[in-house]
Amino acid sequence: MKFPGKRKSKHYFPVSARDPLLRDSMLQEMQPESEGGASYIVGIDQTMVDIEARVDEHFVARYGLTPGESNILDDEMSEALYQELMLNALITHQFAGGTVGNTLHNYSVLADDRSVLLGVMCNNVKIGDYAYRYLCNTSSRVDLNFLQGVDGAIGRCFTLISETGERTFAISPGKMNGLKAESVPEDVIAGASALLLTSYLLRSKPGEPIPQATMQAIEYAKKYHVPVVLTLGTQYVIADDPQAWRDFLRDHVSILAMNEDEGFALTGLKDPLMAADKALEWVDLVLCTAGPNGLFMASYTEEEFKRTTQHPLLPGAIAEFNQYEFSRAMRRECCEQPLKIFSHIAPYMGGPEKIMNTNGAGDGALSALLHDIAANGFHRTSVPNSSKHSREYLTYSSLAQVCKYANRVSYQVLNQHSPRLTRGLPEREDSLEESYWER
Length: 439
Ligand SMILES: Nc1ncnc2c1ncn2[C@@H]1O[C@H](COP(=O)(O)OP(=O)(O)OP(=O)(O)O)[C@@H](O)[C@H]1O
Ligand SMILES: Nc1nc2c(ncn2[C@@H]2O[C@H](CO)[C@@H](O)[C@H]2O)c(=O)[nH]1
Hints:
With 439 residues, the protein is α/β, with parallel strands linked by helices. It contains 14 helices and 18 strands. It has a 9-stranded mixed beta sheet with strand order 7-5-1-11-12-13-14-15-17, with helices on both faces. The chain has a 5-stranded mixed beta sheet with strand order 3-10-9-2-4, covered by helices on one side. The two termini are 28 Å apart. The radius of gyration is 21 Å and the shape is globular. It has helices at 9-12, 20-29, 59-62, 75-87, 99-111, 130-136, 186-190, 210-223, 235-239, 242-252, 260-267, 272-279, 361-382, 399-414, and strands spanning 41-44, 48-54, 70-72, 91-96, 115-118, 120-122, 142-143, 148-150, 155-161, 167-172, 194-198, 228-231, 255-259, 285-289, 295-302, 328-330, 338-345, 393-398. It has a single domain (38-46, 98-154, 175-438), classed as Ribokinase (UDP-N-acetylmuramoyl-L-alanine:D-glutamate ligase), CATH 3.40.1190.20. Helix 8 (210-223) links the parallel strand 11 and strand 12 (228-231). Adenosine-5'-triphosphate binds at residues 259, 289-292, 294-295, 347, 351, 355, 358-363, 365, 407, 410, 414.
């Protein structure tokens, strides 16, 4: 486990700790962990490759697609669309994709540690085909041993970028929704620091098993008190039935990741701070990205242990909302006197000079949050007596610190073409507190 934001291990296991017993256990525990991994994230996804193409303004309308949406195609339409892209040589890039697959890959790159992907994979993989590319473009730290074999293709996600830069997904599903409930391993969920899901998993055709597999995973997560993390797909997926999603969040989810449009579809509130605040009625921790306006986080902490920020207080619909952003996030049910906490950060260094691709910037932010959550699990197992764990926190770091890290990772994704990080953050950033942040 590398530590979030490239912090040195001393930030996690302070060498000046006074208790010699604790220090001995620290020394033992800091030995390289076994391959099994003391702390990991598990996720379910529809296995798919992204096929990115530049298209003219009429293309999306001609295929009857909703711009900005993730549209599902039937086989006939998929073939016609693919043939047109090929004929006109419009395909510019092909990557492994899927919102959860991207997030787990990025988590594993950042943490240099294990994550587990549940989903389907072709029984018969041929060199050069899409399944092969998917496997080749996934970090070797993502454990693919629990994938379920299927006879047929994985999904294809045509990522159509219009002349105005708008991004529309057109999904050719193949067998991506074929994951069965019996392929969800109870012990893998039981040992995880978090279970990552996306709202896309629940919108398959009648008879496809992936929604049941998702509900099975949620049941296991609840049984073992593993936080369930849900990333919302697109605003349209949510807008179809916002009340059903609110109920789903209330009943099953601890941590919610969304962008401001999805936040609006869910809550009816345009202001991302207010949308995040509203979502705290249903979940314990919210990450709401807001494109060029940076990102917001909201959660709960124990009133008695709240920590006041040293940053300037920010104006907003909730006055001075970031006042306690130096506090660590907790589940509401674990607080005796829950206090809401909020944080905001503007894009890292104002955003890159040239944005290569915004696809996956939100997934990148979430992978940073998951890294902090897993680091908390790692530290809890390594130094269980630490005062850090005298209460059951969700994150290792304060909300403000997680915001910085998430934002930094989004910047990295904006700076490259693929939604999947090709490498971790630069080595010279050995602390989030060092001057690199002040530039
Ligand atoms: N135009 C921009 N300028 C500067 N920073 C940006 C810009 N767009 C995005 N970002 C950074 O990326 C983060 C995530 O962006 P955004 O809200 O667009 O994610 P998203 O819509 O969830 O993306 P995706 O669904 O593709 O993963 C923002 O919080 C911000 O830090
Ligand atoms: N799992 C899943 N991912 C999707 C879907 N539509 C788009 N994406 C992914 O969303 C990512 C960007 O967040 C892209 O890399 C796409 O692969 C979908 O229906 N299901």
